[in-house]
From TrEMBL:
Keywords noted in UniProt: ATP-binding, Nucleotide-binding, Transport
Superkingdom: Bacteria
UniProt xrefs under Pfam families: ABC_tran
GO molecular function: ATP binding; ATP hydrolysis activity
PANTHER family: PROTEIN TRIGALACTOSYLDIACYLGLYCEROL 3, CHLOROPLASTIC
Organism: Sphingosinicella soli
Residues of the ABC transporter domain: 12-249
Record protein name field: Phospholipid/cholesterol/gamma-HCH transport system ATP-binding protein
InterPro entries with a match to the protein in the record: AAA+_ATPase (IPR003593), ABC_transporter-like_ATP-bd (IPR003439), ABC_transporter-like_CS (IPR017871), P-loop_NTPase (IPR027417)
Lineage of the species this protein comes from: Bacteria, Pseudomonadati, Pseudomonadota, Alphaproteobacteria, Sphingomonadales
């Protein structure tokens, strides 16, 4: 699919999005733009619809109204081939890793390759080994099953699968949840390195204030059924809204800010 030129360099553009489940309206008239090459953090209180927004963008959630464009193309109403071509260009790491437990790590990474291409097994094994190295897993992780991996290794394996088809856009749903602080910091750095090395755009849902401070270029705040504001951490620190103030200026927010300042971020 040829990439349509986008006058503002937006990789994702969401306009007027409305999502509901029965009587419960999750998003109403939500707008968001994600710029090429940025890591955008998506934050908001529990239940504000961060995951629903991600699912709507990647085509897993039917929305009531609005428009989603990726790489300048409207995602609704695409033909089957165009949809496949679009899906090939993004990778997703779901909240729980979502690895197939009966498959090895290498086989998990090969699932998208099998879905989209006809590639010789030997070549797929080589690509899987390359992705395993790329996410910092040891070579012997390939033949292991997810149950044999630590939480951090599972996340890396999920990331390797998300990178299976060399996507240009990466969606990560709470990638550092459940990791210890050292593991979480290492995972943050991995995301940053991959973004730079692979020229990725990253949509990252997180509650992790350290992640926001250390690797996000901008942060989008979900509240009141929409994206309340998008900005750098500095801009959000000055944003006058009770949830934003509490989140960034509460004890954890202050600790993350101090940590980032000490690290020179
Ligand atoms: N398939 C569904 N059916 C009905 N309600 C749903 C469905 N999926 C999500 N919801 C509701 O939509 C709201 C938003 O859910 P979502 O998982 O997007 O929140 P979130 O912001 O990601 O929350 P958290 O930070 O706790 O992960 C919640 O109230 C949830 O119960």
């Amino acid at each position: 699919m040829a990439e349509a030129p986008d006058r503002r360099g937006a990789v994702i553009r969401v306009t007027g999005l409305r999502n509901s489940f029965g009587e419960q309206v999750i998003h109403d008239n939500l707008d968001l733009e994600v710029r090429r090459g940025e890591i955008i953090g998506v934050v908001g209180g529990s239940g504000t619809g961060k995951t629903v927004l991600m699912r709507a963008i990647i085509g897993l959630q039917r929305y009531d109204a609005g428009e989603v464009e990726i790489f300048g193309r409207r995602v609704s109403g695409l033909g089957e081939l165009e949809e496949l071509e679009l899906r090939r260009q993004f990778g997703v790491l779901f909240q729980n890793g979502a690895l197939f437990s009966t498959l090895t790590v290498a086989e998990n990474i090969e699932v998208p390759m099998r879905e989209f291409y006809r590639i010789e097994d030997r070549l797929m094994d080589e690509i899987a080994a390359y992705k395993i190295a790329m996410v910092g897993l040891p070579p012997d992780a390939g033949p292991k099953h997810p149950s044999e991996l630590s939480g951090g290794m599972k996340k890396r394996a999920g990331l390797a699968r998300a990178l299976s088809l060399d996507p240009r856009l990466l969606f990560l749903d709470e990638p550092t949840a459940g990791l210890d602080p050292i593991g979480a910091a290492a995972f943050d750095q991995l995301i940053l390195q991959l973004r730079d090395a692979l020229d990725l755009t990253v949509f990252l849902i997180t509650h992790d204030l350290d992640t926001l401070h250390t690797i996000c270029d901008r942060v989008a705040v979900l509240a009141d059924k929409r994206v309340l504001t998008v900005g750098t951490i500095e801009e959000l620190l000055a944003f006058d809204h009770p949830w934003v103030q509490e989140y960034f200026h509460g004890p954890r927010g202050r600790a993350a800010l101090a940590g980032a300042a000490a690290a020179g971020v």
